[in-house]
Amino acid sequence: MKEVSRSIRHQGGFTLIEAMMVVAVLGIILMLAVPSFSGLIERKKVEGAAEKLYADLQFAKSEAIKRNTDVYVTFNSTDQCYGIALASGCQCQGGSPLCELDSGVSKVVNMSEFGNTTMSNITFSGDETRFDPRRGTAFPLGRVEFQSPSGKEAHIRVSTLRVKLCSPSDTDKKIIAYEDCP
């Protein structure tokens, strides 16, 4: 009987002070990690916006070839949106003509889907590019820049035959996942 009472007396466990120390250390680690997580989230939103436009430009190019008709991508930097349509000058925030490829099916992307990411420096003549049905060539040529509140940037460049995703070589603006813009 003496051995049973001795094992009960020496049971291990955490004291309240040890548990409080673990919570304090975890709190310090979280405080250090939160700023880097917010930067990561911000960068991922810029990447998401740029990759969405990249995919939509490739889609517009393939739709022009498939439908054997011009397909337009119209940008609106004021309303921070763009739309894809069979007609020039579609209005991504309502109005006429609508941004749609098929009747009743809207093809509009708003930057609000990507947090505080902004679409800027749109260099297409008339804020629009057109994909030709013969070879999917684009005209006019240009670029769109996406920027996070902290200054990270991703660029989409449209040349005659190619759509390219890149990032400035400036280390403060660079998104490592992309090659440097020329």
Automatic annotation (TrEMBL):
The chain crosses the membrane at residues 12-34. It is a single-pass membrane protein. This is Type II secretion system protein H. Belongs to the GSP H family. Keywords: Cell inner membrane, Cell membrane, Membrane, Methylation, Transmembrane, Transmembrane helix. GO terms for cellular component: plasma membrane; type II protein secretion system complex. One of its GO terms (biological process) is protein secretion by the type II secretion system. It is found in: Cell inner membrane. It comes from the Bacteria. Residues 49-160 form the General secretion pathway GspH domain.
